[in-house]
Amino acid sequence: xxxxxxxxxxxxxxxxxxxxxTTMFEKxxxxxxxxxxxxxIKLYDRxxxxxxxxxVIEGRKELSLALKYNVQMEHLxxxxxxxxxxxxxxxxxxxxxxxxxxxxKVFEKIAYxxxxxxxxxxxxxxxxxxxxxxxxxxxxxILEKMEKPGNIGAILRTANAAGADAVIVCDEISDxxxxxxxxxxxxxxxxxxxxxxxxxxxxxxxxxxxxxxxxSTPSASxxxxxxxxxxxxxxxxxxxxDGLSEPWLREAHYKVLIPMVGxxxxxxxxVSAGILIYQYSKKILHN
Length: 287
Known about the structure:
Elements: E1 8-15, E2 18-26, E3 28-29, H1 35-41, H2 46-52, E4 54-58, H3 60-68, E5 73-78, H4 85-93, E6 99-102, H5 104-110, E7 119-124, E8 139-144, H6 149-162, E9 166-170, H7 179-185, H8 188-191, E10 194-197, H9 199-208, E11 212-216, E12 222-223, E13 233-237, H10 246-251, E14 254-257, H11 269-280, H12 282-285
Parallel strand pairs: 3-6, 5-6, 8-9, 8-13, 9-10, 11-13, 11-14, 12-14
Antiparallel strand pairs: 1-2, 4-7, 5-7
Helix pairs in contact: 6-7, 6-11
């Protein structure tokens, strides 16, 4: 028989027949060697995130948006030595969510960004599908084989700011629940529906729903601002290293480029994406 330590309880939940977390949590943790802390740190590894179906969210703003858009939270850590008054208000607004107070030393250990306003949550990865995306006068962004988490997060942030309906991450090299994606998106990951899929599945879905596919490529014959805006638009952006794969270039209705007039011959992927996103979101901003 296992004896429960004083002041703690056991948490065991199953999501889609997978055990997401099985451990103990205490009301206050001050040791970085605590089992729950070790289990939390493992979530910075992609294999562990995928196996357990969980990920980490840091910061008051990010957690607020996650809760607003119904991301299911499993647990919340907080550090009273770091948290501000707005953070305390957030804590009081979610009385039913299991919480653990931790020491500054422990929080700095589990936080990807160091202090992060003294708030860190463990959440269940949302299960979003292509058919969940709106197909009525819709504007979606396709990211294929994008390798840098910071670029993915920055594009998610821009996509939300510009009013995009969804972001589809195809054949991902970095998963969308990478802590750097979550951090740099500043909540855009939650506010804009984000789906992980494959190139073949996504192209089939776009064609079925009558999307005009715009492919960004340096070999294009059109400038990015020379094409008409359609009802349903999908702009596809590839990795900085390889660009878009042949299926996207073959199926594109338009291939576009951003002109280069200086000595450099390329832009950061998130910068290129920002230019294209705002160009093709005009129909949203002006309606």
